[in-house]
Amino acid sequence: MENPFRPSAGATPPEILGRAGVLDEFEYGLRLGSGAPGLLTIFTGARGIGKTVMIGAAHDVAREHGWAVISETATAGFMGRIGESMRQLAEELGTGPVVRRITAVAAAGFSITTQLPPERQVAWRTLGQDLLTLLDKHGTGLVITVDEIHAADRGELAQLAASVQHFTQDRLPIGLVFAGLPAAVSDLLNEGVATFLRRADKIDLHAAAVREVEESFAHTFAEASFEVSPALVRRAAEATGGYPFLIQLVGYFLWREAEINQGTLTPESVERGIAAAHRRNARTVIEAALATVSPKDLDFLHAMAEDDGPSVAGDIGRRIGARTNLVANYRSRLLAAGLIEAAGHGKVGFAIPGLRQHLRAQTSD
Ligand SMILES: Nc1ncnc2c1ncn2[C@@H]1O[C@H](COP(=O)(O)OP(=O)(O)OP(=O)(O)O)[C@@H](O)[C@H]1O
Ligand SMILES: [Mg+2]
User: Fold this and answer.
1) Burial of 221 (0-12, 13-18, 19+ CB in 10 A)
2) What is the distance in A from the centroid of ligand 2 to the CA of 315?
3) Fewer C-beta neighbours within 10 Å, C or N terminus of the chain?
4) A Pfam family this protein belongs to (predicted)?
């Protein structure tokens, strides 16, 4: 049996933990069809929490129900790429007058860099209408998924939302599934770029229960006939904090340790595996996230790291010698970047596991 763990962005894990019922509303929407609330879903959550994996799961559920799916990431030009995919779908559906019309409408192509110019917008919408009408006749519909919407060009997103709203008003079978970082997504919804999206079912993803991780590790290792004590399995599960990326990393490195050691996990090898997992988490998730922040924001983070738990804004301001309005500025930037999260009563905490320890280690270097 090969190592089943997948510590890699967007990779489907051997078991999707802590997500029972999350797609129920969406699946119900696929049965109800046009206008069902579950057909407009936004997943939010910290980096590495499993947003892309949920988009993939929604994709699979939609396919099982016979719906067509177009999956995109919100980098510049996604509207054009969705247009191209719609054209291809129409062609795959066969011939006939509608398909010929679709092909004619799309002939000029949609592959452009950012927002669609007005005449292409009209073409995009006509194409969508025709395709959805065709799918509706087959008793199915189209789901469009867009990942990383926090990075989307506002204009493009507004175009997509307006078109989807239009299709929904025409009772056409369209579903939209988005994913992005929580604070950035709520900014986006509050800016009014796409008021229609405020009605979406917003699902904030959290860590899985450690207990569930423990059960999953126990049976995965048992299946591979690894020898490991229940206490060590618990220790490994606790070291993940239920955080999806760490679940995969810890599982992966423990598996490697067991392979090296003829299928036995000793206390020493478990600690080695956990340490390797945390190092990898720091190198990938944490360093990538920190690479995007300004030196001032970094000061703010270091000031937070002095606390053992959530930090009070006033304390941070005092430590970095900044006034309240400046502190508020740094705070909202870091929230949008997904590095920190609100922790109640004006407090903030770290949104990524291990970030506090990483910052503290930097200070002591
Ligand atoms: N529910 C889950 N149970 C177990 N492992 C999971 C789960 N969801 C995701 N993972 C694993 O966690 C890692 C991160 O998942 P994913 O890439 O979907 O996160 P993300 O939220 O999209 O991260 P980012 O913000 O960096 O895009 C992957 O290795 C994936 O296999
Ligand atoms: Mg992702």
Assistant:
1) buried
2) 33
3) C
4) AAA_16
SS (H, E, C) 112-125: CCCCCCHHHHHHHH
> Helix 230-240 to helix 210-223 angle, to the nearest 10 degrees?
130
Copy the structure tokens of residue 296: 């001032």
In DSSP terms, 342 is beta-bridged to 348
- The CA-to-CA distance between both ends of the chain, in Å, stands at 42
Which residue, among 210, 144, 223, 132, has the nearest Cα to 170 in the 3D structure?
A: 132
- Rounded alpha-carbon distances, angstroms, from residue 98 to 69, 101, 253: 20, 5, 54
Tell me the Cα Rg of the chain.
23
List the one residue out of 212, 211, 234, 233 whose CA is nearest residue 224: 233
Q: Which backbone phi and psi does 181 adopt, to 5 degrees?
A: -70, 140
* Mutation probe of ligand 1 site: the residue of 219, 220, 245 with most atoms within 8 A of C-beta: 245
Q: Ligand 1: does its nearest atom lie under 6 Å from the Cβ of 52? A: yes
From CA 254, how far away is CA 272, in angstroms rounded? 8
Give the tens place of pLDDT for each residue, 191-246.
877 788 888 999 999 999 999 999 999 999 999 999 999 999 999 999 999 999 99
Question: Which tokens go with 187?
Answer: 């900014």
Q: Look up residue 345 and give its amino acid.
A: H
| Separation of CA 196 from chain center | 21
CA distance linking residue 44 with residue 21, whole number of Å: 16
Cα 237 from Cα 259, distance rounded (Å): 19
Q: Which atom of ligand 1 is nearest to the CA of 54?
A: 18
What distance in angstroms lies between residue 297's CA and the mean position of ligand 2's atoms?
A: 23
What digits encode the pLDDT tens for the residues 17-39? 999 999 999 999 999 999 999 99
Residue 164 one-letter amino acid: V
Spatial distance between the Cα atoms of 127 and 135, rounded to a whole number of angstroms: 12
CB atoms within 10 A of CB 36: 17
Q: What is the rounded distance in angstroms from the CA atom of residue 257 to the CA atom of residue 323?
A: 50
State whether the beta carbon of 155 lies less than 6 angstroms from ligand 1: no
